[in-house]
Specification:
The protein is an alpha+beta fold and 136 residues long. The protein folds into two domains: 1-41, no CATH class; 45-136, 2-Layer Sandwich (Beta-Lactamase). The protein is built from five helices and three strands. It has helices spanning 15-18, 23-37, 51-64, 101-104, 113-129, and strands at residues 67-70, 77-85, 91-100. It has a three-stranded antiparallel β-sheet with strand order 1-2-3. A hairpin with a 5-residue loop joins strand 2 (77-85) and strand 3 (91-100). It is flat, with a radius of gyration of 17 Å.
C-alpha cells in the first residue's frame, strides 16, 4: 500500500529528479508481480476492485466532500475522512477517524451522520487556518 502527499504527481513532477514512474505504473507493476506469485491484492471482500465502481465512489466523495471506508481495508473496521485544503483550494491532506465498525457506523453499516458532520467540520476548520476560502 502506498500513502503520502502528492502521489498523483508521481512521475510527472520534476521527472529529472524523481523519475518518470507514475502511480499507475507502480500499481501495474505490483499487480503483475502479484499475478506471477499467485497473490490476490484484494484486502477484504468489501475492497473496491472494479474501476467503474471506484470512479463512481470517487465522484461521490468529490460531490459530498467526505470519504468512507467500511471494511474495505480490514474486517470489522471503518473510517470517515474529509479533505484539508490549502490557500489555493488544493487538497493538502485529510483528517479522519477510524475504529470498529459498530462505533463508526449505524446498525445498517452506514457511517453515522453525526460523525460525518464532525469530521467534515474539522476538515473545514483546519482548511480555514491554512487560508482556504480567504481572499488574497
Amino acid at each position: 500500500m502506498l500513502n503520502g502527499p502528492n502521489l498523483n504527481l508521481l512521475g510527472t513532477r520534476k521527472p529529472e529528479v524523481y523519475g518518470t514512474t507514475t502511480l499507475a505504473d507502480v500499481e501495474l507493476m505490483c499487480r503483475n508481480e502479484a499475478t506471477k506469485l499467485g497473490l490476490d491484492l484484494t484486502l477484504t471482500f468489501h475492497t473496491i476492485t472494479d474501476k467503474a465502481r471506484l470512479e463512481r465512489e470517487l465522484a461521490r466523495v468529490r460531490d459530498e466532500g467526505w470519504a468512507v471506508d467500511v471494511e474495505e481495508l480490514a474486517p470489522d473496521m471503518a473510517a470517515i475522512a474529509a479533505p484539508i485544503r490549502d490557500h489555493r483550494g488544493s487538497v493538502a491532506a485529510a483528517v479522519g477517524i477510524g475504529g470498529h465498525r459498530d462505533r463508526i457506523c449505524d446498525t445498517r453499516g452506514r457511517p453515522r451522520q453525526a460523525l460525518i458532520t464532525l469530521v467534515v467540520g474539522a476538515g473545514r476548520s483546519i482548511s480555514r487556518e491554512l487560508g482556504h476560502g480567504r481572499r488574497q
